[in-house]
Amino acid sequence: MNMNLAMPMEKPAIKPTPVLATLLIGVFIGLFNQTALNMAFTNVMSDFHIRTSDVQWLTTGYMLVLGILVPISGIIIQWFTTRTIFISSLLLSIVGALFAGLSSNFEMLLIARIVQAMGVGLLMPLMTNVILVLYPPQKRGTVMGLMVLVMMVAPAIGPTLSGLIIDSLGWHGIFWICLPLLAFSFIFGLIYMQNVSKLTKPKVDVLSIVLSSIGFGGIVYGFSSAGKGVGAWGQPNVILPLVVGMVSLIVFSLRQFKLAQPMLNLRVFQSPMFTLGVVINFLCMLLNLSLSILMPMYLKGGLLLTAFAAGLVLLPGGILNGLTSLITGRLFDRYGPKYLVIPGFLIAIITTFLFSGISSTTSVIMIVVLHSCTFIGIALIMMPAQTNGLNQLKREYYPDGSAVMGTLQQVAGAIGVAIAISNLASGQAHFMETATDPSNPAILAEALSAGVQNAFLFVFVIAVIGFVSSLFIKRIRV
């Protein structure tokens, strides 16, 4: 008898580089697709004859899906193979892009965006988990830096390229250009993606999923609704979702500690550096998303730049953020987070303070410098704090840690946008109270600039709080 036939076949060795490349390509295209449409909102409003409050659902709906899906990604990763999740996410992205390109009404476009969000919501937590599984702690900084490079460059070039695409092909062209890129990513994944995660298939607690969906979904929806203006905070469509969401999250959290196999293991917060990493990441996302929503509004409404010109002004900051992330990753592996995160917040404190003094006459060069320096600071903060925190977790907690980080980033995004817009509207209204000619375009530009100044005071306070928090960070040696 041939003994070789009785021996079990060995699993093929996992090749980290092709697996990571496959995920990075998919995430890059997904994030580009997400941000490219933002520049086309006015075109969509004109074509479908809808209001600003309606078109905002293209962003609100997207964030809402991510807020619901990312928390349960931890259990999805433990139930389904890496290849299955990747293929599903790419198929959802392709279907979403196809229907968005064919959309003849706003409802169809909104549904397509929700389908796209489901694809991105599966892919991003999967990438973080794969990095944690495949790469040892001493190499994660460099790899995480590469991930941040992709995650920042895609949104950075999105507005600039979308301006060119919209002018030549219309806003539908954004999706038609993304489709062949998504198809390439799908085929590349079929060839190179390997199963990485170990399937444990824990018991699924349906009530936890319901509570999580209502909780995180309610908070994201409430804050997104509040972002429509300063007067929105007292409206029932803001207060009710926030209250229901917070109560649901409290019940959800208590239930997780009672379950033998929780949907989201909140014991990850027993690790001090993970908890601090979550706090710092939350504050950094508040800063990042506030800046991302304020700058296009200021450039187009305060400096009266075109959409394409505004995209060009923001492009250097996004590219420098990505390149800095690569360097930061190597420095983190060598020196740890302290000498990166603290200087990062110091840079953010200085630049956000200077941003609070900008006006309708501030030079474009000054804005490019301040924006670029701020995003360099963000690159010094986000990846080191996140990676250092995740390094403290046990291997079995990786999916839960990734889900917690990803979820709170979505919540931070909703909160940052809401408070930034509210502060902007408040400062704008206060300026217009003393305006002699409210219909004068120059006065309107000055009013918006005053609103941006007011909003950046909030961002400055966030940077100060983040700096104080960063003083307690310590390197985790594994």
Task: Using the CA coordinates, give the radius of gyration.
Answer: 22 Å
Can you give the mean pLDDT?
A: 81
* Largest sheet descriptor: none
Shape: globular
- The helix fraction, in percent, is over 70%
Compute the separation of the termini in Å: 47 Å
In terms of structural class, how would the helical and strand content be classed?
mainly alpha
Uncertain residue segments:
1-11
* Secondary structure tally, helices: 18
β-strand amount: under 5%
Q: Write down the secondary-structure element order.
A: HHHHHHHHHHHHHHHHHH
What secondary-structure arrangement, pairings included, does this model have?
Layout: H1 3-6, H2 16-36, H3 41-48, H4 52-55, H5 57-69, H6 73-79, H7 82-102, H8 106-134, H9 137-169, H10 172-192, H11 206-226, H12 236-258, H13 272-301, H14 307-335, H15 338-355, H16 364-391, H17 398-432, H18 441-470
Helix pairs in contact: 2-7, 2-8, 2-9, 2-10, 5-8, 5-11, 5-17, 6-17, 7-8, 7-10, 8-17, 9-14, 9-16, 11-12, 11-17, 13-14, 13-16, 13-17, 13-18, 14-16, 15-16, 15-18, 17-18
